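Journal club prep, notes for RB
We'll compare a predicted complex against what the paper describes. Inputs for the adenosine-5'-diphosphate case:
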Amino acid sequence: MDAAGSSPEMLWQSALGTLENMVGRLAYETIFRCIRPLSLGEGEFVLGVSNQFAKEWLESRYLPTVTRCLNQAAGEPVAVRITICDAVPAPSPPIESQAPMVPSPVVLDENFGSTPLNPKYTFDRFVEGNSNRFAHALALHVARGGGAGVQATPLFIWGGVGLGKTHLMQAIAHHVLEHQPHRRIVYVQAETFVNQILRAIRDGNTSEFRATHRNVDVWLVDDVQFIAAKEGTRSEEEFFHTFNTLYQTGKHIVMSSDQPPRGLRILDERLRSRFESGAIADIKPPDVVERIAILQKKASFAGTEVPIDVLDHIANITWNIRTIEGALISLLAYASLQGEAITLEVAQEVLKDYASGEGKHQVTLDNIVKLISDRFGISKEDLNSKKRSRNIVFPRQIAMYLARQLTSDSLMVIGKAFGGRDHSTVLHSCGKISRLMATDDATVGLVNELMSQVQTP
Ligand code: ADP
Ligand code: MG
């Protein structure tokens, strides 16, 4: 179907047909059927919902999925925007779509399965190098369906923060969704898995949970260090059973972790030996040449050519890819706002707050608490309190964001450090700051500056 020749209504109905299979019945009936297609023009599709809750919920959980389905229906890329409109008519049954439907990829209900994917974490945006060659090769092997005498399941990828584990895991998911849409796939962060299982136990619907996780062809579990027994043995046990069911039926299992299997705090030694029974690949910090290659690729996807001496300057700030990527984004934003060419002098000036060179240290929550309380002039007690006044809430959100980016502490631990809040407050805060950073350069600048400060001993 060609977007130019179709009404928003027709395209939306066609996308709805696919969405129905992807989002789960509850979400479909309560939210999706009430969405109103408002307009389509200049590559933007505007959808209307009746309230702020539905808007936030769609944006935070389903935007990539909705966008993918609409792109598929339109046959061309469209950006999706969600807005609140007054009158949302009662849902009408979807009309039969005239377009032949491409078989829909199986992404399981997010209540019990997948965490949304970042559309940028694909293989074509991943730079292969000495630091990650083995992990990359095995990930690609699994994405293509495995086999050929390589024992790659379970695949266990481990390495430090910000070195591309999540990017690789999600690249497998994107590849499978694109090339083998019939394979059922779940990508889940281990922490989400733990929260889901605890909730399912509380709500008494563990069988639905099990059915979802045990009925997949490719099971991708990110950051398995969080399965560790601190939540009680129940989640570990549940993980073990799911793992075994999939393992015994020859399904693909890929896990990532910040530790090798022998470093994990797990109670059940059988689980550890299972982790070690397939392929184990580590990702090391990339050297400066690889870091330059990564920056170059990021810049070219952003549509900008950056001189090599500038890339070299940025690559020398630190080994942490997430940080140098942030520096590159700040620089690109500055140059485009000021209309200036990107030269080494400009880069040095704009990025002067990033301490360059060696000597970065591992950031702890205490470092972050101190940094934020000094910077914003609020006491550590206030930061750790439940107070909701504006001058405290924003610094606290920034603190949680930094903790999430720079430490490997769990959501639970970060929540405790900032007012005894639970994991969802931390996710909410991080989401808030990320969204702000997408539109507000001042926040990008602030966050980057704080990040570089806290990493400098
Ligand atoms: P981890 O999960 O290991 O903490 P991420 O996968 O979140 O790290 O990666 C952090 C950032 O660095 C992401 O923006 C990712 O795209 C980028 N990145 C890491 N390694 C590479 C690579 N080899 N090529 C391209 N980008 C990379
Ligand atoms: Mg990760």
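Talking point for the session: Strands lie at 36-41, 44-49, 79-84, 155-159, 185-189, 218-222, 252-257, 279-283.
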